[in-house]
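Journal club prep, shared notes

We agreed each person brings one worked example of a sequence with its structure written out as tokens. Mine is Hotdog fold thioesterase. I'm keeping it raw so we can talk through how to read the token line rather than staring at a rendered picture. Sequence first:
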Amino acid sequence: MTSIWQRPVTPAEFAARLEGTLPGLLGIELVEIGSDFARAAMPVDRRHIQPHGILHGGGSVVLAETLGSFCGSMAVAEGRTCVGVEVNASHLAPVRDGDRVTAECRALQLGRSIQVWQIELRRGDGTLTCVSRLTTAVREVR
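Then the structure, token by token:
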């Protein structure tokens, strides 16, 4: 299968770009890039939970939007970038403090001006915990 990526990022480059930002502070890391998907992971600890001891929904959205935005940028030519214009998330199952979530992102639409990405999050036992969709606008780098 031909890769959809025009500018793939290594895990080290991903980590360097996130350093000092919200996703970096939350411990999000790139795990794998396939020909048409990417995976990232995030620990679930005191930084990520809500008062009931489970992953805060906003943490799931940060993971999903971070991975989707990186996928968008990897899928466009040099001189182009992507900006998020809409994100949604359906939270399906809790993730407890001490677990880890893995996100897998795949393109639903790779247009010249709009992209749509689906991101599925799973906790350590493989249970689907969140389904998110991210729409990005493709723009010229300024």
